[in-house]
Write a structure and sequence with these properties.
- The protein is of the alpha/beta class.
- The chain folds into 2 domains: 154 residues, NAD(P)-binding Rossmann-like Domain (Rossmann fold), CATH 3.40.50; 102 residues, ProC C-terminal domain-like fold, CATH 1.10.3730.10.
- Helix content is 52%, strand content 15%.
- It has 10 helices and 8 strands.
- Strands 3-2-1-4-5-6-7-8 form an 8-stranded mixed beta sheet, with helices on both faces.
- Strand 7, helix 5 and strand 8 form a beta-alpha-beta unit.
- The structure holds 1,4-dihydronicotinamide adenine dinucleotide and (2S)-3,4-dihydro-2H-pyrrole-2-carboxylic acid (A1CAB).
- The site of (2S)-3,4-dihydro-2H-pyrrole-2-carboxylic acid (A1CAB) has 4 residues, from helix 6.
- InterPro entries: 6-PGluconate_DH-like_C_sf, NAD(P)-bd_dom_sf, P5C_Rdtase_cat_N, P5CR_dimer, Pyrroline-COOH_reductase.
């Protein structure tokens, strides 16, 4: 596949790493206004770094946009004359609707919105997808790309804002939980490196139990909580201090913030 990433910042670099390590490219163009911070990608076969978005677009079929929301509209205007019917436009931009993209480039381009997360760098992204009417014809291509780099789910566009919080911001939320459990492990006697190893592999195991057998988390919790034991003691103390409530409140706050970001763009 001939892929371009327009705006190779935090997310763009993660996508590039995932594509390269998974051998998922015929060619890969990476664009950025200043190429210094993506020099790590120099020297890879069939990977090209450029400041020229138009060059990347002309040389590629799949165009993945990963710029800040405030920059997207101008970039769409810049590249519009270079779009042809070979192109599939994939936007990862938070809060930028398909309608707004179509308002700039029209309805005769395959448009897909993708909401991946930075775990795409290690082939473990949970990515949500939706498309415009025409893009339905190319959604299978997007699913193939993102399934190769993790797991994908195609959803209605109305759910993309929630998907942003759960999946994209979700990486930060889970990191904080892993950090907190690491801190607790240190307090309980492990050195910092050991503590993080215990926390991350336990987290990995918990997620994989659910992925493997499809159980509800409470079914797995029931298997761990010995009556009158230490697990239920700890779990209930966490809930008295608002663990679940705090996570839910935080995620709803993230969701509401996207509404503010969207208003600021108009
Ligand atoms: N960081 C994340 O985990 C996720 C980010 N997103 C979305 O992806 C987009 C990018 O986010 P980040 O990577 O975090 O931001 P970032 O600021 O790290 O990356 C954006 C990049 O675009 C480049 N850029 C700006 N104008 C350009 C132009 N005219 N031509 C080429 N490149 C240009 C910037 O130099 C920068 O490197 C945002 O819209 C964000 O909402 C979506 C899911 C996850
Ligand atoms: O924090 C943000 O606004 C972006 C969107 C999801 C991840 N990063």
């Amino acid at each position: 596949m001939k892929i371009a990433i327009i705006g190779t910042g935090n997310l763009g670099k993660s996508i590039a790493k995932g594509l390269i390590i998974n051998n998922a490219i015929t060619s890969l163009y990476l664009t950025k206004r200043n190429l210094e911070s993506i020099s790590e990608f120099e020297g890879y076969k069939n990977v090209f770094l450029t400041t020229q978005n138009t060059e990347a677009i002309q040389q590629s079929d799949i165009l993945i946009f990963a710029v800040q929301p405030a920059h997207f509209e101008n970039i769409l205007k810049e590249i519009k004359p270079h779009l042809t019917n070979k192109h599939v436009l994939i936007s990862t931009i938070t809060g930028f609707s398909i309608r707004r993209i179509e308002d700039v480039i029209g309805m005769d381009t395959f448009i897909i919105r993708a909401m991946p997360n930075t775990a795409i760098a290690v082939g473990k992204s949970m990515t949500c997808l939706c498309s415009n009417e025409l893009g339905k014809e190319r959604i299978k291509i997007a699913e193939a790309i993102f399934n190769r780099l993790g797991h994908s789910m195609t959803i209605p566009e109305a759910q993309m804002q929630a998907a942003t919080v759960v999946c994209a911001s979700g990486i930060a939320f889970w990191m904080r939980l892993i950090r907190a459990t690491t801190q607790a492990a240190i307090q309980l006697g492990f050195d910092a490196k050991e503590a993080q190893e215990l926390a991350m592999f336990t987290c990995d195991g918990a997620a994989n139990l659910l992925i493997a057998n499809g159980n509800h988390p409470e079914e797995e919790i029931d298997k761990v909580t010995t009556p009158k034991g230490c697990t239920i003691e700890g779990l209930n103390e966490m809930e008295h201090k608002g663990l679940s409530s705090s996570l839910i409140h935080g995620m709803v706050a993230s969701f509401n913030k996207i509404n503010v970001i969207k208003k600021e763009q108009l």
